[in-house]
Design a protein that fits this description.
Layout lengths: L5 E2 L12 E7 L2 H8 L5 E9 L8 H5 L6 E8 L6 H10 L8 E2 L2 E2 L5 E5 L2 H16 L10 E4 L2 E4 L7 H4 L4 H17 L8
Parallel strand pairs: 7-8
Antiparallel strand pairs: 1-9, 2-4, 2-7, 3-4, 3-9, 5-6
Helix pairs in contact: 1-6, 3-4
């Protein structure tokens, strides 16, 4: 049975316990989940699918590139510990937001760079971070990240969750995720979870 979608609304993303949520796509969701799982202030990272037209898509359907979904993660975070701005700075500096529909060896619309905002504040923050990245000439090419309203987020199948932590010896994890995590740990050392 497919998981139920988490429908977005234009309300504040904050939950009853003061946490906030944002959905981002930066290529393979295994990589994005691994990075955000080590960021101070992040309470949970859930891989899934966003931005498509097919309800309750499966991984196999999304991999065809025909559903319109991106592999994405829903990041639940404590804004008292990490602001959305700082979280998005990490996002934009741990993948290549200048390549359309590709991250490294992963090619297709499902690997596009996107911020799926839930409310106008999230949209404005994402646009502000893109301006900072552009003005700071962080990348030699223009940022092509989509900043779009989140219609729904569909959690991925259970076997995708904590994929890197559970499968560090797999070839993809060694060749792609481990180097990305090493770069993140070096670049954002002050933002890592303690331990």
């Amino acid at each position: 049975m497919s998981p139920r979608p988490v429908l977005a609304s234009m309300s504040r993303g904050a939950t009853a316990d003061g946490l906030d949520k944002v959905v981002v796509a930066g290529g393979c969701f295994w990589c994005t989940e691994a990075v955000f799982s080590e960021l101070r202030g992040v309470r949970s990272v859930l891989p899934g699918y966003a931005g498509g037209t097919v309800p309750d898509p499966t991984y196999e359907q999304v991999c065809t590139g025909r559903t319109g979904h991106a592999e994405a993660v829903e990041v639940t975070f404590d804004p008292a510990e990490v602001s959305l701005h700082d979280l998005l700075v990490v996002f934009f500096t741990t993948h290549d937001p200048t390549t359309r529909d590709r991250q490294g060896p992963d090619v297709g619309t499902q690997y596009r760079s996107a911020v799926f905002y839930r409310n106008p504040d999230q949209k404005a923050t994402a646009e502000s971070v893109v301006r900072e990245i552009t003005d700071g000439k962080v990348y030699p090419r223009p940022v092509v990240t989509e900043i779009v309203l989140l219609p729904a987020f569909y959690p991925a199948e259970e076997y995708h969750r904590a994929y890197f932590r559970r499968n560090p010896e797999k070839g993809y994890c060694q060749a792609v995720i481990a180097p990305k995590l090493a770069k993140f740990r070096k670049t954002h050392a002050a933002r890592l979870l303690p331990g």
